[in-house]
Amino acid sequence: MRAQLPMDGKYRWFRVYARAIWLDDTNPVYLGAVGECHPVQSTELPDKGENVNLVTTEGVQAMMRGMEQIFDVVRLVDVKKNTVWTFDEAGKLKPTNHPCHAVWNKNLPCSNCSSFRAFTQHSQISKLEFNDGKAYQVLSKYIEVDGTPCVLELVNKLKENPLLTVDGRNLLSDNMSAYSQALYRDPLTNAYNRRYYTEQSEAFANAEGVAMIDVDNFKAVNDTYGHQAGDETLRLIVRGIIDCIRSSDILIRYGGDEFLLFFPSIPSDIFASRLEEIRRRMESITVPGCPNFKPTVSIGGVYGAHPLADAIHRADLKMYDAKHERNHVSVSILPPPTTGF
Fold this sequence. Notes:
Blueprint: E1 2-7, E2 10-23, E3 29-39, E4 54-55, H1 57-67, E5 73-78, E6 83-87, E7 93-94, H2 114-121, E8 124-131, E9 134-145, E10 148-157, H3 166-184, H4 194-199, E11 209-215, H5 218-225, H6 227-244, E12 250-253, E13 258-263, H7 268-283, E14 297-303, H8 308-323, E15 329-333
Parallel strand pairs: 4-9, 14-15
Antiparallel strand pairs: 1-2, 2-3, 5-6, 5-10, 6-7, 8-9, 9-10, 11-13, 11-14, 12-13
Helix pairs in contact: 5-6, 6-7
């Protein structure tokens, strides 16, 4: 396959070859894969207007039949509906009501869904999934099947071998979780931290809705009741926000008492109502030891602004508009971009 890889500070096209490695011919055990990359000559490069993720229904079905010889699960995922695509008798894409997360024996969508990230970033994402004591390799690639956005998802169960024992899986899973927690989570509130915003912005760069949330009169809380009360206030506020948002939404502690909130794939009316729901939820919070204090927030939101830096700037300005009244939401819904000739 062709892929763009970093080289000398720039992304260049390479042709990638990969081969699976198996142990024991009589009782095959999958160990992994090796591959090599060769630079692509300029005459082989795709045209600037060519979409290398665009495939036909006939092409994707042939591709999936070949992949089924290697992977345990090969499927097309409708990320917006959290369901799986199939094909009708004519070979065209057909929606189903089968939840994509059912393959993991889950009742709700996965919180670390690689297919969601591949869809929002228009890219390819890989991960290790640990489920019911077993380890799986998951590859998710964004494609468009005759113009319909999908994610091709490939799942392979890692077989038992000395390289991945049960104890090894548990240790790897625990270490990866602890590493991610220490690296990207705010230790006080458990929201994502500023480092996550800096290093992982591709995960939410295409979010339709962006909001900036500021706690009203937070300095007065610290001055009147002490910093412990202030810390507890922030923890309760974050819990309240998380109760109002989806697992796919991203909450970041941007500063001391300021939070950034990203909403991917959300309609504009629901975005606005969700911010108002968060504001009302704050009014119901009671901080222990602070009988005369009721936390409130000022929220600024923008919908449909790109790139990300412009969206954050606009949300910040709307937040300052909201702070003039305090305990208020100020939202700007931008019109969709128009295409001209």
